[in-house]
Amino acid sequence: MIVLIFVGLILLAHYYLWHRLVRSTTAPGRLRKALTWGVVALMLLVVATFAGTRADFGTWLAWPGYLWLALLFYLFVFLAVLEIPRAVAAVLLRRAERRRAPVPEPVAVLAGTPAPDDVAAGLPDVTPDPVEPPAGLSRRLFLGRATAAVAGVGAAATVGYGVSSALGDPVIEPVRVTLPKLDPRLSGLRFAVVSDIHLGPLTGRSHTERIVRMINGLEADVVAIVGDLVDGSVARLGPLARPLKDLESRYGAYFVTGNHEYFSPGGYIEWLDELGELGVRPLRNERVEIAHQGAVLDLAGVNDLGGASQGDGPDFAKALGGRTSGRSTVLLAHQPVQVTEAARHGVDLQLSGHTHGGQIVPFNLVVGLQQPVVSGLATVDGVQVYTTRGAGFWGPPVRVGAPPEITILELRS
């Protein structure tokens, strides 16, 4: 069902673009036919790209396919926004043409003088100039081409900016979180939080190396990787993940699954094993104690909701049950929406990702309908939640209004 809905939306979006960028800008003929087949080819490219990358093949399609998907989206947005100005302009042009039309003057005809039928009827000569196109066609083409030009320039500029943002260095976001129950001796404990790295067909080893280098530069006490590390199998992406073995922190690096780990063609278990070999400890519905300056913090992690279909869903009771009374707890959970269950178990702070901060405006508005926090720090059901925008991207290598992020989060009592 989801696949059918996706294909249907892609079909409708391409039809709308064909209507506005081809039919409204060209006259019937060879050019229109060629452009129409071009739109059909682009639609098939998008479908093939998703099918190929999900099945771990066809990665050569990823760059053209995902870039076109980004252009498709922003062309759709710009054209939709321009619908009202376009309709207003059409009305104004039509009125202007009517005002410019010549007003017929009375014609005196002498009795008995032969005259053409139209003159005899007192009608003006309205035979169209054979050199000029009909007024209606001229107006349609003008509006169609002007709208297409504005939308095209706007979409290309937006996607160009988004590509430079997505492929550039992540922003270092410093955040201080005050936990009322935190032991004062733990005040100043620092977490490097990163999520949604999305190693995949559009990222190279340098992507991971840069993230590791930036995290190490923060000199954090704990590194927390909050899911969606990969988009593929260990066989294909293992070399890209290898730089993670160089992560540096005082008390170690920890990982919880995101929904994309469960999409891996090789299965999620192989990635858990691979991360263990790289020195990153997966927290699978479990917790560890972080001893710092004579005090202890509980660091817990739960599996992503996406694991439920594979018998590996979150188990909050297992991860959080039987804790020492009065000890503060930080929970790693990929999706912010998991905070509802975390609140029932007395968690003080939840660190999440998943949302990408919306990744491309205006998707941030859509994400907000599903998740309680799109990005940044918020309080939900009495629990503080920090949601990072993630250090990578999914799908199109584009970020607009939500630059990639690595967070240095400091606990305060």
From TrEMBL:
InterPro entries per record: Calcineurin-like_PHP (IPR004843), Metallo-depent_PP-like (IPR029052), Metallophosphoesterase_sf (IPR051158)
GO molecular function, one term: metal ion binding
Keyword line: Hydrolase, Membrane, Metal-binding, Transmembrane, Transmembrane helix
One GO BP: lipid A biosynthetic process
Calcineurin-like phosphoesterase domain span: 189-357
Residue stretches spanning the membrane: 6-22, 34-53, 65-93
Pfam family, one: Metallophos
Cofactor: a divalent metal cation
KW Transport (keyword) present: no
SUPFAM superfamilies from the UniProt entry: Metallo-dependent phosphatases
UniProt keyword annotation of Transmembrane helix present: yes
Family: Belongs to the metallophosphoesterase superfamily.
Protein name (Swiss-Prot/TrEMBL): Calcineurin-like phosphoesterase domain-containing protein
